[in-house]
Every structure is written in C-alpha cells, then in structure tokens.
C-alpha cells in the first residue's frame, strides 16, 4: 500500500472530525458565545453549505494546477480554519473559521480520490479510494466520541486545537509521502467541464444524492428513534453510534474491494440491500436486538456505496475526473441535506420517529431505480462498441 494513502486518510480523519464533532460540543459552544442552540446549529449548516460551494468552485479554480501542491494548500486552508475556530473570541469569528475549514472539504476529497486512484494499479483504484475514506469513517468511530470527551473535560476549544494538530500531521505526510505523479496536472477548466456532457456522470451523481441521502436521512434523527421508539436510555446512544461507526468502517473497506471487481453490480446489490435493511429497521424499531443489528447494517451497507459511487463518477469523467469527483463530494452533502430535510418533514407531519427511516428507504429505492437504468445503459453502450483490432505489438507477439 502506498504510504501516500495514509497521509490522505489522516487528512480525511481530520476533516471528518471537524464536520461531525461540533454536534456533541454544540451546547458548550452556545453557552460560551451566549447564543441559542438553534443559532449555534448554523455552525453545522454553514459548514455543510460551504462544503458544496467549495467542492464546485474551489475544485474548478485549481483544475489546471498539479494535484500534490493543491492538496497541500487545501490542508493549509483546513489548518487555518480550525486555528481560527480554536481561538475565536465570538460567534461570528467561529463561523468564519468553520466556513474556511469547510471550503477545503469537497476539494480535498474530490482531488484526493483522483490522486489515490492514480497511486495504484487499475484493478485496485476503488480500494485506494476506500483507504482514503477510511479516515472519514474512523473519525465517526473514534474521533467524534473522544473529541467530544476532550471538549467536555478540557473545554471545547481543546478539540479544535487537536484537530489543528491533526491537520499539521496530514500536511507533513502529504508533502513527504504523496508522490509527484508525472500525469497529475489537471485538464483545465474547459476540459473538466466537458466531463459533464456525459449522461452517466449525471446519473452517477443522482445515485449519490439519493442513495447517501437515504442513509443519512434515516440517521439524522436516529437518537430520537433509539430513545423514544426503541426505549434505550440516552446514555446508551453514544455507544450505539460507535456501533454504527464500526459498520461504516467495515462497509467502506468491503465496498471498495467489491467495487474494484464490478462497480455497477456492487452498487446495485448494496443499494437494494440497504432498502431492505431500512424497511426492516422501521418495522422492528421497537425491538432492541433487531435495532442494534439494523443500526450496524445500515452503517455498513450505507457506506459500502461510497467508494463505488466516487469511482463510477471518475470512470465516466474519463481523462478529466477532478471537477466531477469534487462535484460528487458535493452531492454527498446535498444528499445529507435532502435526507435530513425529508426526515424532518415526516416528523413535523406527525408520522413519528420511524418515519425518517421510511423516507430514507424511499430515497434509496429511487437510487436503485436510477442505478439499474444507468447500469443498463452502460452495458448497452459496451455491447455496441466495435471490436478493437489487435495492435502492432499484439500482432508481433502472435
């Protein structure tokens, strides 16, 4: 395994920690800045919106630049944003720090996925992307619980100081371990935009929004489901979320290896299984053992789609995958927002705390339909391609 993948995974760990750890520290931040928890919640929403903007605009701005220096510069931006957050004297400064850190999120994962895939052989590209995303899953399994504990015992600022240190470690790793690939210069903005003429790129992005949105929509209100429907004590919820995170970690690893063998088949099977798991979860949410199993499987199958979804977009973007890769990272966050909004609508309508899970199953079912259509088109296009004549090298070997 190329050591550069570890540097990218460490960066992913820091970015994932920045995104999610604020949820457990929100009451402390709100009290420190003397704002309502609803106002403090904009530190989460503002981050998510900035991720989408950065994934598109920042990635587009650097498409012609060599990718290794760009990754290093993005990590510097990440370090600066978290440093500002750690030292913020007021809410407005904290928000600025969050926005700066978020701007690098989509571009880092988008460009990092391309670099990770370029480090390995063709048959191992999805697995390499999965290794980079392992940092993000590890942030959920280990980083968020321990980051929250650190913030609760040493003050919330200590968590952002720790994240800043993680950013520095990743930066050093990128500068020393990520290779300068000879073909790493981007295709330029015009070349990158040409990738969006592909119908398959748009279908892949749509599957990302619907499939990931379905899983995240079910997860957003999971604490209410676990306490009010299943009957778990509130103190048990963090440990159950760690179980969910373990599912993410395993799903990411297995999904990456499976996608390397057949990306379309993997996505279709995993998304179909996720629909079934979500439906069973909603039907058996009053049963504690079934809920535990469903939570683990939801994380596993939900994140097993991520390497394949990212790989599929890059595959059909062909020679100019950087902007399409970044756009797909934005699509993950757009899916987060869609799933959370739809789940909130069902709760507001009085349908109960299992309704977001049903809504998630519905979104994921739509993803299965789109994926089946995209796969059928892909197989048809492959079958209609004319047979290639042997090259001169091949003929000389006969």
String of helices and strands: HHHHHHHHHHHHHHHHH
End-to-end Cα distance: 35 Å
User: In terms of per-residue confidence, which ranges show pLDDT below 50 for 5 or more consecutive residues?
Assistant: 387-398
Overall geometric form: globular
Helical proportion, percent range: over 70%
Q: Quick one: how many beta strands?
A: 0
Name the beta content range. Answer: under 5%
Instruction: Give the mean pLDDT.
Output: 82
Radius of gyration over C-alpha positions, nearest whole angstrom: 21 Å
The DSSP helix count reads 17
Main pleated sheet: none
Helix/strand structural class: mainly alpha
Please tag this protein with its features.
83% helix, disordered C terminus, 398 residues, mainly alpha
Describe what is shown at a glance.
The chain has 17 helices and no strands. Helix content is 83%, strand content 0%.
Write a structural description.
With 398 residues, this protein is an all-alpha fold. It has 17 helices and no strands. The longest helix is centred in the middle third of the chain and has 30 residues, at 125-154. Residues 387-398 have low confidence and may be disordered.
Topology of this structure?
Elements: H1 3-20, H2 22-33, H3 37-40, H4 42-61, H5 67-87, H6 91-118, H7 125-154, H8 156-177, H9 188-194, H10 199-220, H11 222-229, H12 237-261, H13 263-283, H14 288-317, H15 322-348, H16 355-384, H17 392-397
């Amino acid at each position: 395994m190329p050591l550069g993948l570890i540097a990218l995974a460490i960066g992913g760990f820091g970015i994932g920690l920045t995104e999610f750890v604020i949820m457990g520290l929100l009451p402390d931040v709100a009290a420190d800045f003397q704002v309502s928890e609803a106002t403090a919640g904009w530190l989460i929403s503002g981050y998510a919106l900035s991720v989408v903007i950065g994934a598109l605009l920042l990635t587009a701005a650097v498409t012609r630049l060599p990718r290794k220096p760009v990754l290093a510069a993005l990590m510097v931006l990440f370090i600066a944003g978290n440093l500002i957050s750690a030292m913020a004297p007021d809410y407005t400064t904290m928000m600025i720090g969050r926005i700066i850190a978020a701007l690098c999120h989509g571009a880092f994962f988008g460009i990092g996925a391309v670099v990770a895939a370029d480090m390995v052989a063709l048959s191992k590209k999805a697995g390499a992307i999965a290794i980079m995303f392992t940092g993000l899953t590890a942030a959920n399994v280990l980083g968020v619980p321990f980051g929250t504990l650190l913030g609760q015992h040493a003050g919330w600022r200590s968590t952002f100081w720790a994240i800043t240190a993680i950013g520095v470690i990743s930066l050093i790793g990128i500068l020393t371990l990520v290779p300068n690939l000879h073909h790493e210069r981007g295709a330029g903005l015009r070349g990158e935009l040409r990738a969006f003429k592909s119908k398959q790129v748009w279908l892949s992005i749509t599957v990302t929004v619907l499939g990931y949105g379905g899983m995240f929509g079910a997860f957003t209100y999971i604490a209410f489901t676990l306490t009010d429907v299943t009957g778990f004590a509130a103190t048990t919820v963090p440990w159950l979320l760690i179980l969910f995170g373990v599912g993410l970690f395993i799903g990411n690893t297995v999904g990456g290896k499976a996608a390397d063998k057949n990306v379309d088949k993997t996505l279709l099977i995993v998304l179909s299984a996720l629909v079934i798991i979500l439906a069973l979860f909603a039907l058996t949410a009053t049963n504690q053992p079934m809920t535990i199993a469903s939570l683990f499987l939801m994380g596993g199958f939900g994140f097993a789609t991520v390497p394949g979804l990212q790989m599929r977009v890059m595959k059909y973007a062909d020679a100019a995958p950087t902007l399409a890769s970044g756009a797909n990272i934005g699509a993950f966050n757009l899916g987060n927002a869609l799933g959370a909004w739809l789940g909130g609508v069902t709760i507001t309508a009085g349908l109960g705390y299992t309704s977001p899970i049903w809504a998630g199953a519905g979104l994921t079912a739509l993803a299965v339909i789109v994926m089946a259509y995209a796969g059928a088109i892909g197989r048809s296009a492959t079958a209609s391609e004319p047979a290639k004549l042997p090259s001169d090298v091949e003929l000389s070997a006969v």
